[in-house]
């Protein structure tokens, strides 16, 4: 397979990952998160990333086999020599976009986790302040009025 074809295949796979990341972002930004849909997206995303990794491994091995230097400089030179520098640059741009989206989604997850933690702490604190006696009535708490009169 030519380098140009490999890069085009990588771009298609990156586009699939980007699409899933955008769907994930929409779900994470929603007021009510659909956990099942989020889990399904995560599963699809994992498969796409594995396919992308396989393509990248193949591209890297071709680059190495043809005697190009390791890393981005060697990849750029290989693409330039093969006449597909434009495809290489498009692949890099898609990779950067996927990285930005993934970072943003990670920040959304962190925000949600923080909100959930604060909510759970509030519930726990409220539950500790209100205890019930054997009669099922709220016991008087220090500093609180007894409303069972």
TrEMBL record:
Annotated transmembrane regions: none
Name the UniProt record assigns to this protein: Flagellar protein FlgN
Keyword Translocase carried by entry: no
Keywords: Bacterial flagellum biogenesis, Cell projection, Cilium, Flagellum
Function: Required for the efficient initiation of filament assembly.
Family statement: Belongs to the FlgN family.
Top-level taxon in the UniProt lineage: Bacteria
Xref: Pfam families: FlgN
Biological processes annotated in GO: bacterial-type flagellum assembly
Cross-referenced Gene3D superfamilies: FlgN-like
